[in-house]
Amino acid sequence: MPRRPRLDLPGIPQHVIQRGVDRQPVFFSDDDCWFYLDWLGKYARDRAISLHAYCLMTNHVHLLLTAPSADALGKLMQDMGRRYVQYINRTYKRSGGLWQGRYKTSYVQAERYLLSCMRYIELNPLRAGMVAAPGEYRWSSYQANAFGAAAPLLTPHHEYLALDNDSATRQQAYRALFTAHVDDADWNLIRTATQQGVVVGDSRFVEAIEQRLGCVARPQSQGRPAISPYNSNNS
């Protein structure tokens, strides 16, 4: 079965997940995380990509970013793949690939789902039972977004900035999001859309995207794929 082509929507935030081969670890020490983040910041700046949130887990990474062009994200991931894999193989005397196939990505409707997606990413260590609170985890953007910790690789999205003009009040409002009830429907949509490489958005947003691209951009139920209304021969 051919791979689904990536959607081409420059300027819209994207949630990216990249996993280790067979879900094996990709980070083995604190130094690995520091090097990864340092190179991520450098290559993102080189590609004029804005990084809004991240979380480095033992065997995968989450990124939320906005790329200015269709190929910028792909080039960033290539840059990171070459540099980080070379470092890991050299440091740990190993060979071969580190990442599981292609990275997964979904576009995110900013005004409806961007903050939910940030929350989804930064709560990942809590969901995995690694910490009791998101602020206890060192390798995510939570400390920067929630408490103003220095993170030069991050560029705040305007939806995050719109929480309040005052940085301290904005951070307090952001922290309050993490005490609110988790919407299971939002969580499932974010997870499914990222796995399928489609759009996280409400029906009007998704319909506008589908009309623009001429293809299905919404999550599909498991099982036999539905016939696309944009590629059907039954006209």
Tags for this model:
235 residues, alpha+beta, Alpha-Beta Plaits, globular, disordered C terminus
- Report the average pLDDT across residues: 89
Give the helix level as a range of percent.
40-55%
Number of helices: 9
Can you say what the CATH homologous superfamily is? Transposase IS200-like
Query: C-alpha Rg, in Å?
Result: 18 Å
The CATH topology: Alpha-Beta Plaits
Q: Structurally, how many domains make up the residues?
A: 1
H-E string: EHEEHEHHHHHHEH
Parts with pLDDT < 50 across at least 5 consecutive residues: 223-235
The strand line-up of the biggest sheet is: 2-3-1-4-5
Biggest beta-sheet profile? 5 strands, mixed
How many runs of DSSP E, i.e. beta strands? Answer: 5
- What is the global morphology? globular
CATH class category label: Alpha Beta
**Oligomer state of the chains in this structure:** single chain
End-to-end Cα distance: 24 Å
Itemize the secondary structure elements and their pairings.
Blueprint: E1 14-19, H1 30-46, E2 50-56, E3 60-66, H2 72-91, E4 104-108, H3 110-122, H4 124-127, H5 142-147, H6 158-161, H7 167-177, H8 184-196, E5 199-200, H9 203-213
Parallel strand pairs: 4-5
Antiparallel strand pairs: 1-3, 1-4, 2-3
